[in-house]
Amino acid sequence: MVQYPVAVKGSTPKFIPRDWEYNAFGAAAISTSNKHPEETVKWLDYLYGDEGHMLKNFGVEGLTYKMENGYPKYTDLIMKNPDKLSIGEAMGKYFRANYPSPGLADDRYLEQYYDFPQQKEALTTLSKYADNAVKVLMPPATNTPEEAELTFQNYGGGQDLSERNAV
């Protein structure tokens, strides 16, 4: 695995693809049309708690993972799926780890998701200088309501935002 290129040999890379710590991908909100806001808050709170964290990232203990010396290890249902699903497809069938959703991501899922040593090496190599990018990242921008409407119409199936059902 080759590190990102640099202009001066021996210097560290700065312009590295990475997001801000919060990028809203997979975020959730409670709209005024939600008929069950209290239950929705409980659900979101659950996902950020210990039990919800494990459910989101590893699924159901005994079915999709087992604990080995305090480490959640995926079972063969995920890693060698009997229906020939890929690891990502099996994860998607039973839990949300590899899909954007509320709750915190757990690096222990990536340690198992990447099957080949080259993938694991790339993860280490490419993340080595990731924090350098923070110094040169463009600041996050928020769309105006009009820009948000245009974006949604272009990428959200063409319906008006006011017609879309929110959580």
Average pLDDT confidence is: 84
Biggest sheet character: 2 strands, antiparallel
Strands, count? 2
Give the fraction of residues assigned to helices: 25-40%
Radius of gyration, in Å, reads 20 Å
Low-confidence stretches: none
Note the overall shape: flat
Secondary-structure element string: HHEEHHHHH
Tell me the β content.
Answer: under 5%
Separate helix tally: 7
What is the CA-CA span between the terminal residues?
42 Å
Helix-and-strand structural type: mainly alpha
- Write out the strand line-up for the largest beta sheet, numbering strands in chain order: 1-2
List keywords for this structure.
2 strands; 167 residues; 7 helices
Structure write-up:
This protein has 167 residues and is mostly helical. The protein has helices at residues 37-48, 50-58, 76-79, 87-94, 107-113, 117-127, 145-155; strands spanning 65-68, 71-74. The chain has a two-stranded antiparallel ribbon with strand order 1-2. A hairpin with a 2-residue loop joins strand 1 and strand 2 (71-74). Helix 1 crosses helix 2 (50-58). The longest helix is centred in the N-terminal third of the chain and has 12 residues, at 37-48. The mean pLDDT is 84.
